[in-house]
């Protein structure tokens, strides 16, 4: 049975989608952007600060659903500028110190709200 996941600790969806959906032991987290759920604003700073906020938002959703970063099996990272790849990677790596998930990273023309990074995640129990 499909279950919709929502936490007030992560930003509300900015369109017709859920923060995450769980089904058959798999959690699909929608692309997270660097919005601070408390302020509703994009976090100030550059790619490192934005990636940190994105990863925190993913963590809030994982926790709400009863998962952790250790359960993540796949991530997709979207960057508005591939020159930010190394800095994004530096922050991202802190969340997966052992057995990192499979991942793809793409440079895209534009991201929602003009942010620098968006990351979607799949976790599995």
Structure, explained:
The protein is α+β, with helices and mostly antiparallel strands and 125 residues long. The chain has one domain: RutC-like (60s Ribosomal Protein L30, Chain: A). Helices cover 23% and strands 29% of the residues. The chain has two helices and six strands; from the N terminus they run E-E-E-H-E-H-E-E. The chain has a six-stranded mixed beta sheet with strand order 1-2-3-6-4-5, covered by helices on one side. Strand 4, helix 2 and strand 5 form a beta-alpha-beta unit.
Overview features:
single chain; 125 residues; 2 helices; alpha+beta; 29% strand; 60s Ribosomal Protein L30, Chain: A; globular
Describe how the helices and strands are arranged.
Blueprint: E1 3-5, E2 20-23, E3 26-32, H1 47-65, E4 72-79, H2 85-94, E5 102-107, E6 117-124
Parallel strand pairs: 4-5
Antiparallel strand pairs: 1-2, 2-3, 3-6, 4-6
Explain briefly what this protein structure is.
The chain has 125 residues and is an alpha+beta fold. Helices cover 23% and strands 29% of the residues. The protein has a six-stranded mixed beta sheet, covered by helices on one side.
Mean pLDDT: 96
What is the global morphology?
Answer: globular
CATH-assigned fold name: 60s Ribosomal Protein L30, Chain: A
CATH architecture: 2-Layer Sandwich
Tell me the name of the CATH class.
Answer: Alpha Beta
Number of helices: 2
